[in-house]
Amino acid sequence: MKKLSIILLSLALFMLGGCSLEPPQWAKPAKKDKLEDIKIGLSVSTLNNPFFVSLKDGVVKEAKKNQMETIVVDAQNDSAKQINDVEDLIQQGVDVLLINPTDSSAISTAVQSANAIGIPVITLDRSAEKGDVVTLVASDNVKGGQMAGDFIVEKLGEGAKVAELEGVPGASATRERGKGFHLTADKKLEVVAKQSADFDRTKGLNVMENILQGHPDIQAVFAHNDEMALGAIEAIASSGKEILVIGFDGNDDAIKSVKAGQMAATVAQQPELIGQLAVQAAADTMKGKKVEKAIPAPLKLVTE
Prior knowledge:
The protein is α/β, with parallel strands linked by helices.
């Protein structure tokens, strides 16, 4: 019996040794010379946010301009759903993947699945922690966070008491915007409260209500995106207080709020441009051209 087990084990090892980790040729996407033959798979973290709707529109418009097909899927801020969505896109035979990660760590699995069969991956607005990504198309989130901190110091002076509404835990944008903000805040401001509101307007309102109860003397709020900032403004309005609020993204509702004198400022990205640049990078990749590992989209501070 022992001798039989050894023989079976040896046979198994021989068979595994003969297998290559390289995927079979049939599993790899076929090379296509014409852009009109290219199928793009776009996975967006959520389409319940105007910023990401604009990003999606930028991708779809630029792809259509180049006669490229686009399949769009909405992860609804669910990391598990996003991984399944990307696997489905792979099964549908996309030639290139554009991914706006819900969670930079969790999406690594899907990126590696695409890598395994030679499908190029481009990330938008947020990065992936692992796997081979052709390029990240995004604004400089660290610089934008610091712009927000500097603006608060300029308006209120050093030592002002500030609350920070953080984005989705695990998202690179959350880490980077927070890092940039604290480059200024840790030296010149007093951050008395910070809490995640998941980039969501309703959660921003609820979290801000709780923060105001515990810290009624807050002078300013930096929210990692406009949706949370707009929620915070609702909570502040109900409290009757006057508090400086600065957001991040530059979506339409935020710009209107700034013009109306409600939100003090927003660090404006250009989400449609991010989408356009991602498609251009995809086209260059499919043509075999070299693409920079990071493609920046300019930021600007919008004030009244």
